[in-house]
Structure formats: C-alpha cells, structure tokens
Amino acid sequence: MAWWKFEDSELQATLEVSGPIHDSDRLTFARELIATSFEGLDEYICPTVHAVPISNSRGEQAVLGWLMEVHGQAGPVPLFQGVFRDEDNFYDFLRSSDYILSSEPTNVTDEAILRLWSRPEPSKQTVVVSVSWGNESHECPMAEVTWKRIVAGRKFKRVVPYFYEGKRYKSTWLFNQSGYGTLLVTYADEAVAFDGTLHDAMIRVSDSEVLWKALAIDVKQPVSH
User: Are 146 and 11 spatial neighbours (Cβ–Cβ below 8 Å)?
Assistant: First the structure.
C-alpha cells in the first residue's frame, strides 16, 4: 500500500472532520484505510507485487522487481523497481520505500504510520472542480491522485464545507455515481445544487482551466469499487 494515501485532506473529506486534526484521528483513519484497501483488493491503491527470477550464462541469479497498478478502465500500469539479489532483498526495498505489504498490515506501528503521513500542504490541492448554485461559485479541491481516480472512472464522494451569510454548511460531491463523468452536488438537507456532468463544470488543474472532454477516457460503463 502506497504512503501517499495518508493525507489530512483525505481524512477531512472522508470523515467530515471540521476541527483540528490530531494524531489519534490520523491513526484511526490510516488503520481503517489499510484494512479496507486490502480487503477490497483495490489495485490502484494497493498495486500487486511481481518478482521475476533471471539468470546469466554463468548461473548467477537475480530478481526483477515490478509493481502493477490497475487504473480502472485505463488498464494495468507496470512500475519497474529494479534488479535485486533475491525476493527478500526486493521486499526489504519496498519496505524502505514506505510501502506496506499485504502480509503484514497489523505489524505497522503507530510511529511508522505517522512517519508515512503526508502533512497538509496547499500545493497538494492541485485540482479544483467548480459549479455554481445560489448565484455563487463553489469549489471542490482535491489532490491530483484523487482526480486521476475520478478520470479513471472510480466512484468518489467528497464533503466540502462552505459559508453562506456567515454560517457554515457542508456540500456533498458525488463523482461518477450515475455513470462515467456524472456529478451530483447536494447541500443542506440533501437539496440538489447541481445534477449534471463534468462537461458542465469548471475544472482547473495546477491553476490552468481544462475541458472534461480533453481528459475523459473511453469508458462504456461506470467503474464500481
């Protein structure tokens, strides 16, 4: 399991935390994420590990190490890690590179999780999806890795706070729930603020406006978790 998923922004959006985030919140969220990711076999969050034995004419042996991510309908993406003395050497390399192996999720200490946690940085919120309701534009910021999952067809839910006449409310953004590229935004008591597609939303990636049709892949059916 890759370390980048441990982020305050993901914790806030998933658990609807509005106040300060403490290490106890981070540990609870991370352990739940580890458990559900391994149980669900999400090969985007949890790439599979492949060790391929090789040898030369002198009989010397080594291992080619690969990780394989599956990006929804976009298909598998191999990530070459290098040549290693043996499988144990390859696994040690993955551990030192901040990957959590599926065979040892309960062995991860609190200290290791907090060390792997990515502390909040404004620059990580590189993608912003905007729609309008109530004569105002409302934004849903997210990390690039979250946006890539949406583009790949994954269903995604984010809870984003906003203010109206000095009061704080929450909006719920549902991506790909009714098909690829759909977007439903609700607010207050589940009132519908926006029900359409990402074609009709404003999308900014690294402060540059982009069109959904330039990003969308050829997906005939929505991708489920």
Answer: no
CA dihedral 194, 196, 197, 200 (to 10 degrees): -70
Per-domain residue ranges for the chain? Answer: 48-101, 122-215
Cα separation of 138 and 130, whole Å? 5
Return the number of other C-beta atoms located less than 10 Å from residue 142's C-beta.
25
**Residue 197: closest CA among 127, 125, 128, 131:** 131
Contacts of 112 (CB under 8 A, 6+ apart): none
Instruction: Please report which helix (H) or strand (E) contains residue 171, including its range.
Output: strand 167-175
Tell me how many helices (H) and strands (E) the chain has.
Answer: 6, 11
pLDDT digits 0-9 by tens, 29-88: 888 877 776 665 555 567 888 999 999 999 999 999 988 877 666 678 788 889 999 999
Residue 192's beta-bridge partner residues?
Answer: 186
- 147: exposed, middle or buried (C-beta count within 10 Å: 0-12, 13-18, 19+)? buried
Neighbouring-strand partners of residue 144: none
